Amino acid sequence: MIGCEVTIQDFDVWKDEGLLTQCRLLCREVFCQECGLQELSEIDAEDKNSRHIVVQLTGNNSVIGISRLHSIQPYIKLEQVAVRKDWRGRAMGYRLCRRAIELAECFYSRQVLVTYSHHSTVKFYEQLGFMVASDEFRDAGILHKTMFYFPRRNKLPTLHLWGFGGAECKYTPGDCFDPAVVERIKETIMSFKVD
């Protein structure tokens, strides 16, 4: 529970598809209506293979914040972070992402946590501990940068990233599967590992 007004929880889609439907409505509100992105799909395969995090009002369970963790080796991707407009500026996004980081460290500790940050949110993610790993690239028609969260030191030897080169995947230059970005993430982690 965060304060007395809201609760934060994670859920799997097969356990609560109704809650996911509410989350998709907030996604449409934030990403389509406010940001002008093309219409989002209904519940998709990525939704079904993700762990979702939701912030709800305590009294009526209205969804005011959402994100999801999508496992796609060697990463766990923090995606679709959105907070309802009337709840912005109250640290809901920060709290939502902190919960996502906790879940990633607990359930996906051998995967590197990454996100694609719009230029206006780079500082926000840096305050959470993320580091920029790429130049700007276009994702869904918007410029982003790949950012990653530094894994816990005791997990470094077991990361799936060490066996991943990136060339075996389709990628957009600058995204987390770009071999240059994969190498930059590896080099940054290694530079801290030897200290």
Automatic annotation (TrEMBL):
InterPro entries: Acyl_CoA_acyltransferase (IPR016181), GNAT_dom (IPR000182)
N-acetyltransferase domain ranges (all copies): 6-152
Domain of life: Eukaryota
Pfam families in UniProt: Acetyltransf_10
GO biological process: UDP-N-acetylglucosamine biosynthetic process
Gene3D superfamilies: 3.40.630.30
Record-level Gene Ontology MF annotations: acyltransferase activity, transferring groups other than amino-acyl groups
Protein's UniProt name: N-acetyltransferase domain-containing protein
Organism whose genome encodes this protein: Wuchereria bancrofti
